[in-house]
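Narrative of accomplishments. A recurring question from our advisory board has been how the design workflow behaves on a single, concrete structure rather than in aggregate. To address it, we present the structure tokens for one chain from the evaluation set, followed by the sequence designed for it. No filtering or post-editing was applied between the two.
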């Protein structure tokens, strides 16, 4: 068996909210407000979805991904283990630091292809990673700028 593709990607985006407000945008349910189609499902009743060991699943393009919270530092960092069976597995990290305009958010993806068929897609993901993060930045900025009803996931001040 030959080694599979592995990528370690890191980038930053600026978010126009301080870390204590922006953090909620990177939680499982918080991401719903700015990511079209993001709909985490929790197999058990969850009181705090950022608690270590919390498991949830997502579906994207007909593929189910299993996520587990593996680290959380109050309002400053969260890390998820993620596995898409038959495709890829790894770690996703998000760390927030205060900046002049709100928060500098460092996003890391450390992923390994699980099967030969996933190698090319992982290479493509790595190639387009800067554009991927730019999409995050733009979607979050659009959410922040839009009027809101003040609901549970309203991260705006």
């Amino acid at each position: 068996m030959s080694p599979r593709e592995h990528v370690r990607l890191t980038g930053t985006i600026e978010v126009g909210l301080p870390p204590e407000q922006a953090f909620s945008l990177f939680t499982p349910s918080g991401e719903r407000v700015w990511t079209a189609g993001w709909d985490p499902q929790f197999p058990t009743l969850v009181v705090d979805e950022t608690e270590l060991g919390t498991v949830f699943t997502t579906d994207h393009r007909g593929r189910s991904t299993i996520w587990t919270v593996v680290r959380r530092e109050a309002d400053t960092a969260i890390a998820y283990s993620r596995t898409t069976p038959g495709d890829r597995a790894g770690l996703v990290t998000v760390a927030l630091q205060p900046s002049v305009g709100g928060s500098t958010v460092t996003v890391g993806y450390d992923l390994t292809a699980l099967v030969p068929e996933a190698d090319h897609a992982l290479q493509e993901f790595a190639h387009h990673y800067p554009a991927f993060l730019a999409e995050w930045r733009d979607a979050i900025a659009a959410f922040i700028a839009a009027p809101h009803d003040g609901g549970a996931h309203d991260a705006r001040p």
